[in-house]
Request: fold
Amino acid sequence: MDTAQIKFKQFLTDLSKDYVGLKYRWLRMLLHGIISIGCLEVSTTGLELFNELVELGKISKTDVTLLSEVAETTKQTSAKNRIVDYKRTIQCSETLGTSLTQYRRALFEALRNVGRDDLLKVIGFYTLKDYGLNNIWDVVFYLEKEKLLDDTQDKLKLFANLLNEMARSILLAAAPKNLERRETSNSSPHVNAPLDWQKEGLRRIKENDLKRNYSGTVRVYDREFKFDGGHEWWKFFSTATDIATGIKAKAGGYKSMGGANEHAIENLIYKLMAQGIIRN
Reply:
């Protein structure tokens, strides 16, 4: 092993010290898509991930551009300083061309703004209470592993809708261009006409003056949804059910029965979209 390779190995070892504990989970999330989900699942340290990047040809002793992007995105001053110092000691050439996607950067920034209430809402919506997941990074890793979250329209909007306003706006503002409305198939009751399930669901509830009811049914296009609500300590909650499939979605913590019903229906629509049962 030559001197340059020894320096490189030591550099990766030292850099991994900046990504332990929760910060290791940051690294794992950012490298998803560059490193396979199987490798991410069995790795436990930053050094293992760095070594995998070397094996994949994503970084080398003369190209640490990807690591610079990770350090800049995570705003880790110590990591940035280590990379700058390393570049000074060896001739670096930026030729490998691997970089973080805009979606990965946006997802990271959005998750940094997720609070405890958001975490509980996500865990409840995806029914993950019994999985022992106690931070948003592990939750997102599980969702991506199970293909419940990616940068496609239905899944991303479903997830973003569960977050606070700041996190949601960060994620959707930088989402990929493939977040565009798709036409429905010929089996749709409105052939060749784009649908808007969320807007239509809200319109139907208001049109039938159902939003203040504690229970009822509403028909949206060719599907019938049932909702059942209640209140506790001046907060209202509701559960919406797709009658055809039995799939349910919940909403809670609202100041009015109407707000709970509307969000329960909206969450149910997003859930059906994520499973490919309906689409805009």
User: Anything to note?
Assistant: The chain is about 50% helix and 10% strand. Confidence is low (pLDDT under 50) at residues 178-193. The radius of gyration is 23 Å. Residues 3-100 form a domain with the Death Domain, Fas fold (CATH 1.10.533).
